[in-house]
Amino acid sequence: MDIVLITAVISSLFLVIGAAEPLAARLRLPYTVILAILGILIGSGAIFFLRTDLTDALNPVAGAILNLPIRSNVFLYVFLPTLLFQATLGMNLRRMLDDWVPILVLAVVAVVVATLSVGYALSWASALPLAACLLIGAIVSTTDPSAVVSIFRSISAPRRLSRIIEGESLLNDAAAIALFGLFIGFVTLGGQDPLLSDALARFPVLIAGGALTGWLITRIAIWVMAMFGRHEMAQISVSVALPYLAYIGAEQSIGASGVIAVVAAGLTLNLTGPGRLPPQAWANLREVWDLLAHWAGALIFILAALLIPRLLEEVRIGDFALIGVVILAAIAARAVILFGLLPLLTFLRASPPVDHPYRVAILWGGLRGAVTLALALAVTESFRVPVEVKRLVGILATGFTLFTLVVQGTTLRSIIGWLGLDRLSPLDEALSRQVVAVALQTVREDVARTTEDYKLTRDIVRSEAKAFGERLEEAVRVAEDRVDILDRDRITLGLIALAGHERDMILARVRERTISARMAEKTLSDADRLIEATRTGGRSGYQRATRRSVAYGRAFRAALALHSRLGVSAPLIRMTADRFELLLSQGLILRDLDAFIEGRIRRIHGRRVAELLQGLLTRRIETVETAMEGLRLQYPGYAEELERRFIRRTALRLEEREYVAMREDGLIGAEVFTVLMQDLGDRRNAAEARPRLDIALQRMELVRQFPLFADLDDPVLRRLGRALRPRYVNEGKTIVHKDGTVRNVYFIASGAVELESGGQTWRLGRGEMFGQVAILMKNAARAEVRAIAPSTLLVLDVARFRSLLSRSKALRKAVRASAELRGIDPDVVLKEPSKET
Questions:
Q1: What 3 state SS string does 652-696 have?
Q2: How far apart, in whole angstroms, are the C-alpha atoms of residue 577 and residue 584?
Q3: How much is the pTM?
Q4: Paired sense of beta strands 769-770 and 783-787, if any
Q5: CATH code of the domain occupying 72-418
Q6: What are the residue ranges spanned by the domains of the chain?
Q7: For the domain 722-836, what is the CATH code?
Q8: Which SS3 state, helix, strand or coil, does residue 718 take?
Q9: Distances 24 to 15, 124, 292, 529, 580 between C-alpha atoms, Å
Q10: pLDDT in tens, 151-167
Q11: How many Å apart are CA 471 and CA 376, to the nearest integer?
Q12: Alpha helices in 689-825 (DSSP H)
């Protein structure tokens, strides 16, 4: 075929792709539906012009369209890895991990249920062997979420809901293609029905082998990209090669799932890339992949749609009944998941509650698309599949895809409107009216200042001011006529706005590079979590999320256990350094939120709500400062190094701003500017490196700061530093139970605890200890100790404590003072250890 003609056809398809998006927006239809319709029209038109006797002038063009080298391998080896890889790069994985249970269960279980439902329904209704029926079930089980997710975003549906749908779709693509590879093997063996034991034995190999291949290849790629630190184009080029090498390596080398390999590669790069690549390089890499995926997604839809007329050429009357069976079975399977499994997960608190209208929208929005068509095409091209099976696979998959796109896709927005999901809640409606009134008042003040500054004609100014004043009065009247928003709701809305502004500030700091790329994802995830918790739980949800953002999580405790029990310190060092940087970033952001409360929230929600939000913000700042102070006490030198690093990064940002301003003003030329920016880039790369944290050395510094150990010499201090074990506890955590046996003495390095014994309560803070009375007195009153702030404790066992008590006058003095505080004779407390030592 003439290469010029092929080039002309492909370039024309890009014109179609460019026109499809504005056309979809104008017709209020999903973008993928428009692409599919246009592809079908082009394919049908090409067939018509090639076979008609009306004219032969368009035969070369029609032939070029119909004979494009479109094979299933083009979809599976070129377009599919691009789409999957970009989808994983675009995910907020930290937020996805919060919902990994519903995502994983919905993805895997939904695919299996749909495969079995369609497969057994077809086996009952047709003469096809069970293996072929299950193959068709696997082909049609994967969903395309783009339509429902785009509509959910336009109606401000819960972000968590959209995130679950996106995650489910990504993983069900992988699961469906893995099942496809499994059943196509049985079909090509002469229609032999699969044994469940054989399927279960092969499926883990597909998954685990693909995941391992994707992870390994990505680790190598990241190492290579890090070597090309100053060559951004080279880094992006390596990333473009990565998904294809992962896919081919898994499929051809070890017989595993290439789709799983691509997903694993994308997830690995998403998690590790921001910390290993410069921020601008990572941002540009993401933009390149967004564009590649946009083109790949559009081309895979339109090229697959071009094949639909050919796939349906041999359709028979009886095939329509089988298409109906597939439609009913697939919808029934998805309904079981949405109305059976999802409520069960919600009941078990593994999934967020999803309202009934949203579940109906998700059910009707389960469109099928290019992946289904590509898998069907792969079957029709295989010489090892029986002819009748190939015909039915192509017709049933294509017919079902057409039904979802043409029927469900074109009516989805109407269904959402019928469900009332596109209307504002009474609370949001009342708020919008108040926001309009406040905004117009601000605009009137700004316009008045502007007209005065420019000395405009008084009559014109007066006329426009009158018209604007009438609009303002109407807005105020409408806002005041409506039922007032409850203070509780105002607080919730104010906190949502506050958390949203906090997220905007984080983004600004990331762009300015005062927050490192390593911490950008974590801080943004915390901000997103804060917004969602406030939406669902109001003020209490906001407070829970803020406490969680500074708390010691399970991963940190696991790293601590590795360090203390196995001597593996690398995870603890990395997480401690991350915590330092996170708290420093949080403190800087929070201190800039006061102006937003005074300037915006007070005007919309009133003085009382603004003052309450200010109180919440103040307490949050205190919590962050307490946690930061605890780290400063533990690692004083490291905190100083991080602050110096922040100052250096800020200075570099200001220096860059000055160079840019001088270049724009013409004070320096392009050559000088280039040299200055290269030098600044070198110094910025050096400033990106985080100072090394030495846990052992830092713990010695901490021990020296305790007044209780002030009279100990250096050899004893060193032994003590090795003996003391750090323990990190969250606010509200019970450290010592009343009915438990006390086996350790605890020294408070940071934070505070509350000790309750004999009906009395004492609060202890930094530099104090507890547990010593219970150890030294056999008949001491039982006490319960609970952390009232995120605290860092140093733990010492009984034997070492008794030995230390005999050496340290300061420690004996502290034990005496604590006994007197609790009304116990200090001589009685100190008598027992003096005998033993």
A1: HHHHHHHHHHHHHCCCCCHHHHHHHHHHHHHHHHHHHCCCCCCHH
A2: 11
A3: 0.66
A4: unpaired
A5: 1.20.1530
A6: 3-66, 72-418, 426-481, 487-635, 722-836
A7: 2.60.120.10
A8: helix
A9: 14, 40, 20, 32, 48
A10: 666 655 666 667 777 77
A11: 59
A12: 695-705, 714-723, 772-776, 798-807, 809-821
